Fold:
Amino acid sequence: MTGFSDAIAAAFSLLISLDPDLAEIVTLSLSVSLVAVFIAIVVAMPLGAALAIFNFPGRRLARVGLSSLMGLPPVVVGLIVYLLLSRSGPLGVLGLLFTPTAMIIAQVILVVPIIAALTSQVVEELWAEYEEQLRSLGATPLQALPTLLWDGRYSLVTAMLAGFGRAIAEVGAVMIVGGNIDHATRVMTTAIALEVSKGDLALALGLGIVLILISIGVNALGHLLKQPGQNRRPVNGGVR
Structure:
């Protein structure tokens, strides 16, 4: 019990003193995950919206496939990205393996299905609710899309936060493609796994506390953003 108390005390000491190693790991974790989520948003939101309001051959299959991809095993994604970026792989010439860029690629693959599926659900519900009104204003589905996205902005931000939560907590894929290299690709989740195996519980607990605080913050923000979005106003003449 004493050893656990000492580890907790040491962990808080690292946090209060802004330990350089801990700060470096947290900063890298946040930068990698934020960049990955930004790229995923750019790809996933148009994809999800298109699946929600446009009819095309194979649409149902595409939606089923997208929902299935939400449960992609991270280690499998890491393995696929590793094979693509390894020296013998098709993208090996780029030299991206064991770099933050490789970790970003893996996280993008994991996050895109989540944001796309949630975006598709939000836009589909809004389109079902407002389709008649928007068509009466002469709006095509493409023209109505900006209005739908704006009206569902709170739910869409929640989808972004869900993607960020998946990215920041990822360990398997980033361990494989990043290599957990000190001062280069070591992020919070991989550092926690390493420090526990080494017996350095202070740093592991410090990083764990930061990760928990980030998770709580993301979930709290998502909950707060749901409140304004629950009472949506009818779509008005914002469509041209």
Q: What stands out?
A: The longest helix spans residues 100-136. Residues 26-230 form a domain with the MetI-like fold fold (CATH 1.10.3720.10). The chain is about 75% helix and 0% strand.
